[in-house]
Amino acid sequence: MELKIALLAGDGIGPEVIEQAVKVSDAVAKKFNHKITWVPALTGAAAIDAVGDPYPDETHDICASSDAVLFGAIGHPRFDNDPSAKVRPEQGLLKMRKKLGLFANVRPTFTFPSLIDKSPLKRERIEGTDLVFLRELTGGIYFGKKGREQNGDVAYDHCVYSKDEVRRLAKKGFEMAMTRGKKLCCVDKANVLETSRLWRETVQAMEKDYPEVEVSYEFVDAVAMRLVQWPNSYDVLITENLFGDILTDEASVISGSMGLMPSASVGSKVSLFEPIHGSYPQAAGKNIANPLATVLSAAMMFETGFGLNDEGAAIREVVNKSLSEGIVTEDLADGEKSYGTSEVGDWLAQNI
Amino acid sequence: MELKIALLAGDGIGPEVIEQAVKVSDAVAKKFNHKITWVPALTGAAAIDAVGDPYPDETHDICASSDAVLFGAIGHPRFDNDPSAKVRPEQGLLKMRKKLGLFANVRPTFTFPSLIDKSPLKRERIEGTDLVFLRELTGGIYFGKKGREQNGDVAYDHCVYSKDEVRRLAKKGFEMAMTRGKKLCCVDKANVLETSRLWRETVQAMEKDYPEVEVSYEFVDAVAMRLVQWPNSYDVLITENLFGDILTDEASVISGSMGLMPSASVGSKVSLFEPIHGSYPQAAGKNIANPLATVLSAAMMFETGFGLNDEGAAIREVVNKSLSEGIVTEDLADGEKSYGTSEVGDWLAQNI
Ligand SMILES: CC(C)[C@H](C(=O)O)[C@@H](O)C(=O)O
Ligand SMILES: CC(C)[C@H](C(=O)O)[C@@H](O)C(=O)O
Q1: From CA A218, how far away is CA A226, in angstroms rounded?
Q2: Which of A17, A90, B172, B318 has the highest count of CB atoms within 10 angstroms of its CB?
Q3: pLDDT at A181
Q4: pLDDT of B83 higher than 70
Q5: Residue B258 has pLDDT above 80, yes or no
Q6: Is A264 contained in some domain?
Q7: Which residues pair with B237 in a beta bridge?
Q8: What is the value of pTM for the model shown?
Q9: In a shared domain, residues B203 and B134
Q10: The domain that contains B86 carries what CATH number?
Q11: Which residues form a coiled coil (chains A, B) (predicted)?
């Protein structure tokens, strides 16, 4: 296959981890006889510095005309503690999600047998966990009207959802449940929020089309609890944008390291693949960041982006091998010998 | 002291657990020579059934003229899966919080040495945890305008905060930090939400008045993660209504059981004390619910409501004793002998 992939390294550790995913993808492409053309483009704080816009039109054009987007990380502390900043790196991410129509964020959470004891949760609680969140990504309070009133003394953010937005996300959830454990949990706060009641009634109306799927409705506060108590009781969870942001980060704890969890954002022609961790500025440039979440995002890209399952499996296999042989960055080394970001990437590429 | 306490049992297991807290409070009052007059009042689904309003005016008058309110639980599944229900038990709770001016919900999270191994989290992660959330309780998306448009196909909820609302909550947070570990974490989503940026700038402006307090600002998704990774790195956390709802429930997992965590809602003359667990309808009427969270809420009532610290300490002591002697409900019994809700209450009252 000839593949054109937009490469958005972004901020902080983004460039370093992306580099490793490129190495590994190239090795896979070589082995399976594909040709990848990488097209780098600016985003995030890096793009603000260069052209004043965290998601420039040029970047959008590159993404929109590619077969997939591989993304590093976005965000810089310089903007976080300046509530008056006019342009923020994160706006680039939001604009990109919206303009590319990426309305569903797919975040699997699973455990690695060789890492299970690194989780803050007890082994018996997490063994066998294999759940996936489908987070709505282009609606809700992230994209509603926001602003100030009364000389800046009052701030507001509007959360809005339409039945269509819920339906297209829920449809993906039901379909995914059919290919997995046939359980779907709709996470909302229907005892307080009108948008949640709209979610609930929309999903309820879809149940009859998927008679084999067992559907449950749980409040977001209860899920925040049960997710760390009994994660292996869940299969597919669907939820709105903000709840998904919070719960998927929480869920990443199960696997023992955020540095491992990949994600896919899907919805229209082009899909985007990115690690769920952030830009981790403290580690930037030190060759210590764990590249595995980005490498596993590349695996998702081959699988769900291009339908190339063997290629994805080859990446997963070499990642598992690196974990069991201890070719890992310091966050996973437990005081044993550790390797640099690029050494891990080299090892993975060589062992594909 | 002569104390008049409004008694709002509410729904589900509410009445059963409240009964035990009354027994224990009466025993403490007897020992320390106080006279408690309990004034029962209707709330929740029970009040809807009786008078069509989950927080009737009569109940409000009783609460407003009492020295404190002791509250059980609210909520009934009959309403949860009916998105079209016009009156909901939860509205009673929200109306009560608003009308009584209870703008701050204080939720301590700590571990019990005798229960530490019941937590889904590993001992070394949670040992020494002693944190407290201050959740804003009468603003934000819970109380903003909400409704439908376009024939019901679009729903909205407005999140609104004023600097004054943030300031009075943050003030309590700074003051509480001064009496504890002198660390304050402001939890927000300032990289996306305007209300969060207002929170952050308001708290930043207050820092200079509390030079001894070390203040940090963290995104809600990061806290959802760190809270289960390194809970003992936190001291006081302040946050808005919805984030607080999610994070405090998540935090309750640390102690090993939701059945243990008390809370206080404060803000004006009368304070309210309630367990953080819900109405747990599956267990209602079975004499199996754990009454300790409500009993410990009564301890908070003596301490922060009436300034009677010895009385509160006496309750905590007898609770600890019951835990170490195994006089516990089945949720804490680990397959060993367990006791009924009322037997635990009797034992506590007798051993005060
Ligand atoms: C960086 C931020 C805007 C973003 C979000 O909140 O969506 C991130 O936390 C994520 O989950 O991808
Ligand atoms: C019952 C519900 C409305 C309530 C809330 O969301 O505030 C509860 O979850 C709580 O935390 O006290």
Answers
A1: 10
A2: A17
A3: 97
A4: no
A5: no
A6: no
A7: B133, B185
A8: 0.95
A9: yes
A10: 3.40.718.10
A11: none
Rounded distance from Cα A99 to ligand 1 centre (Å): 16
Model pLDDT for residues B207-237, shown as the tens digit of each residue: 999 999 999 999 999 999 999 999 999 999 9
Q: Dihedrals φ, ψ of A348, to 5°?
A: -60, -45
Q: How far apart are CA A134 and CA A281, in angstroms?
A: 27
Nearest CA among B14, B3, B5 for reference residue B274: B14
**Tokens 């603000």 appear where?**
A48
Q: Is A276 inside a domain boundary? A: yes
| A215, A235: one domain | yes
Asked if residue A130 is part of any domain, the answer here is yes
Report CA torsion sign: B204, B102, B281, B48: negative
The total domain count for chain B is 2
Give me the phi and psi of B144, to 5 degrees please. -75, 170
Rounded to the nearest integer, the mean pLDDT of chain B is 95
Judge whether residue B286 has pLDDT over 70.
yes
Is the pLDDT confidence value at B86 over 90? Answer: no
Range of the structural domain that residue A197 is part of: 105-258
B262: tokens are 């008390």
Q: Is A221 in contact with B246 (Cβ distance < 8 A)?
A: yes
Residues A144-164 as b/e (b if ≥16 CB within 10 A, e otherwise) read bebeeeeeeebbbbbbbbbbe
* B228: in domain: yes
Task: Select from B83, B155, B194 the Cβ nearest to the Cβ of A146.
Answer: B194
Predicted confidence (pLDDT) per residue in A140-176, tens digit: 999 999 999 999 999 999 999 999 999 999 999 999 9
Q: Flag if A120 and B229 touch (Cβ within 8 Å).
A: yes
Average of pLDDT values for A124-142?
Answer: 96
- With a 6 Å cutoff on the Cβ, whether A225 touches ligand 2 is no
Q: Which atom of ligand 1 is nearest to the CA of B191?
A: 3
Q: Which residues line ligand 1 (CB under 6 A)?
A: A 74-75, 90, 93, 245; B 191-192, 221
The answer on A112 and A57 residing in a single domain is: no
Rounded CA-CA distance A280/A260 in Å is 14
